[in-house]
Amino acid sequence: MINHVKRENGQGELRFLVKSLKEKLSNFIEAMAMGHNYNYIHGNQFIYCTLIAFILFSPFVSCSKKKASLPELKLSNVLASNYTPVISISVEDGIAEKYGVHPEIQYDDNFEPLMTGKVDAKLNALGIPLISGANGADLVLFAGTMSGGHIVFTNKSLAEELKDPKNWKGHSIAVTNQSTQLLVLSAFLKEKYGYSADDVKFKYFDSNQAVIAAVAKGDVDIVPSPYALRDTAVSSGLIQIADLVDYYPDYACCRQTAYGARFRSDRQVYVSWVKGLIESWKLYNSDQKEAIRVVSQVTRQDEQWVYDHIYDRERTGYVSYNPDPFYNGVLSQFDACIDQGYINDNHRELAEYFDISVYADALREVIKENPDEQFYKDMWAYFVDHNNKYPNFEKNYSSTI
């Protein structure tokens, strides 16, 4: 069962260290942002950055205070957590607690705490939980963190030719293993042009920085990069030829994944958490000033920096933070995982470990509580459009509400 806690989070003196560490950490966060493979970080760099990130992002630095006897939800997110504004708003503005759940967020790079039930949900990535769940891990995908956010680059000498993906046959694409950009491009090239692994070669690297370096050297032809590495790519001489959404509009990226046993035993706590995300998504869209204030407070970055990273859609590869589970988008990447050989032959089907009912129940409750808010009704229409491939969808979910 999920614990109930009665203590309060103290801000302490850690905030006074933030200012001096901000400049050192910000460049690292830029490089890390929206990557989906962090296992390449080793040695002193890992220790150094983890310590700084703990100080910057630890729950003990949070402004939020625990209300007595609320159920606690232990959540894990990546170090580059500043790219999840809806989550920050829900936690820091007390919206999650308004709906009856106290979120405790820890920042780490791996999935072991989720796999072993030490945390109740992981808030980032898609590839690892998608593959692990199919291969038998007790995980449940249930909501979204972000979609979009990747930019496609190539060398100047190839830019004109490769602007049209139909010309990619015989070329190579640099990716990190199990990454969203790998799965999205694999699905796109198969669906649009019938290209297989024999037609376009994916080459794997340990980090997004290594991916960019390989293309800059001419070792690989194409790189779909997280938007936060745009400046690195451009300074390396690469040319942007597209946003990934140009090829595959509104694709799914980071999802929220629960530890299965906790999800089943404390389902209503997850419903409450998602209700907070739904209201926070509305605030993000309706009160830019407040959203920027919250994210600036969490990241210790100035407001222009925050605006550039959470609202400038052209700069960020048209990233979106809609908490909708987006089953349809994940399904195409599930099929890509099979094509790439990540998923075993005796795998579970996606719907066996992908739940849309928690989100649907949460949204229904929010609409019932706010019957005059058209924004939430539009979210339901989005839900229908983006999850209607789920088994028995028409039987269980009405097209209007």
Characterise this structure.
With 401 residues, this protein is an alpha/beta fold. It is 46% helix and 12% strand. It is built from 19 helices and ten strands. The protein has helices at 15-32, 43-57, 85-92, 95-98, 112-115, 127-134, 159-162, 180-193, 208-217, 230-235, 244-247, 260-265, 267-286, 288-299, 303-310, 327-339, 357-369, 374-387, 393-396, and strands at residues 72-77, 102-107, 121-122, 139-144, 150-154, 172-176, 201-205, 222-226, 239-243, 255-259. A five-stranded mixed beta sheet has the order 2-1-3-10-4, with helices on both faces. A three-stranded antiparallel beta sheet has the order 8-5-9. A two-stranded parallel sheet has the order 6-7. Strand 6, helix 8 (180-193) and strand 7 form a beta-alpha-beta unit. The radius of gyration is 21 Å and the shape is globular. It starts with 14 loop residues before the first helix and ends in a 5-residue tail after the last helix.
Give a brief rundown of this model.
The chain is α/β, with parallel strands linked by helices and 401 residues long. 46% of the residues lie in helices and 12% in strands. α3 (85-92) packs across α14.
Low-confidence stretches: 1-64
* SSE order, one letter for each helix or strand: HHEHHEHEHEEHEHEHEHEHEHHHHHHHH
Helical amount among residues, as a percent range?
A: 40-55%
The biggest sheet, with number of strands, parallel, antiparallel or mixed sense and barrel status, is:
5 strands, mixed
Write down the Rg. 21 Å
Comma- or semicolon-separated keywords:
401 residues, alpha/beta, 5-stranded mixed β-sheet, 19 helices, 12% strand
